[in-house]
Amino acid sequence: MPGAVEGDLDHDRGLLRRPLFARRPHPPISARDYAHRKNAIVRANVTLEGGQESLREPELELSRTLIEQYARPFVQGDILFREGEPATHAYLLHQGRVRLLKRVRMVERSVSVLRPGDLFGEGALGDGSVRPSTAVALADGLMLALDRAALRSVVERYPELAERILSQLVRRLRDAEDQIEVLMLRDTQSKVVSALLKMAQARGALAEGAGPVELVLSPVDLSSRVGLDVETVKRTVQRLRDQQYLRIVGERVEIPDVEALRRLYSLLGTTEELRGER
User: Fold this and answer.
1) What's the CA gap between 223 and 107, in Å, rounded?
2) Is the pTM of this model over 0.90?
3) 182 Cβ contact list (under 8 Å, min separation 6)
């Protein structure tokens, strides 16, 4: 259940720097409370395969029904669950952003950043599972708390939700394969450039003669993809920007010339091979 953090959360580094103590859990949102949130829900985006899509009217009714039954509100800094805890529910993120953190050698590292439409904590749908990571709210929002029976019921009632979840799981498998390939690289710049090219490829932007491509991507997002700390990622991105391979505006990364970035990646690969032969 959600509980507020009594301590400091370093949002740049993804580190939980003090012990966490949960306050009293938030109660489920009522139908009356939902009415006050309706305008925000209409404005919410649901992440779909290949990008974001605004909530359409039929999906609004679907979301309204689900929220009345299963929603749990949370605020920025809440710990939604902790690594090692028994897993009883999966969660469908409706609003806000959530970061998954994994403890490695006494340090919390960012695993991924979730956005509206993402299912997480799905390990609860198995038997005797414990949480493999910690989930921290990066912004105020709502999530749907679903045990196995509830998820089965929701999927049976709303097949489009089942299709969305399936698309997400397929995307996660593809991302995991890409991440393994990136993590095998030894050079920091190669890791970052490879991850950016794979994201551009997912947008269909690697065709010859393709124009600039824009990615919505924060340093935290990128660090979770390449297995590097946020400060290292920031320095690497800054270097690529100084070399005019990238343009940065807030959390938007523009690749003005994908082909030039691909040539840089090939050059970095050649350099890495030469180093390995020494």
Assistant:
1) 15
2) no
3) 191, 194, 195, 198, 225, 226, 227
Residue 103 parent element (H or E): strand 98-104
Token pair recorded at residue 30: 């009522």
Judge contact between 137 and 11, C-beta under 8 A: no
Q: Per residue of the chain (278 residues), what is the pLDDT tens digit? A: 444 333 333 434 433 333 333 333 444 445 455 454 444 444 443 333 333 333 333 444 556 777 788 889 999 999 999 998 888 888 988 889 898 888 776 666 777 788 888 889 887 777 667 888 899 998 999 999 998 888 888 888 888 878 888 887 887 777 777 767 776 787 888 889 888 988 888 776 555 556 788 888 888 778 877 878 888 889 999 999 999 999 988 778 889 888 888 888 888 876 555 455 44
Whether domain 185-277 has CATH 1.10.10.10: the reply is: yes
Task: Write down the domain spans for the chain.
Answer: 9-172, 185-277
Q: Which of 160, 161, 80, 150 is nearest to 121 (CA)?
A: 80
Give the fold, CATH level 3, of 9-172: Jelly Rolls (2.60.120)
- Alpha helices per DSSP H over the chain: 31-43, 57-70, 148-157, 159-183, 188-202, 219-226, 230-242, 258-277
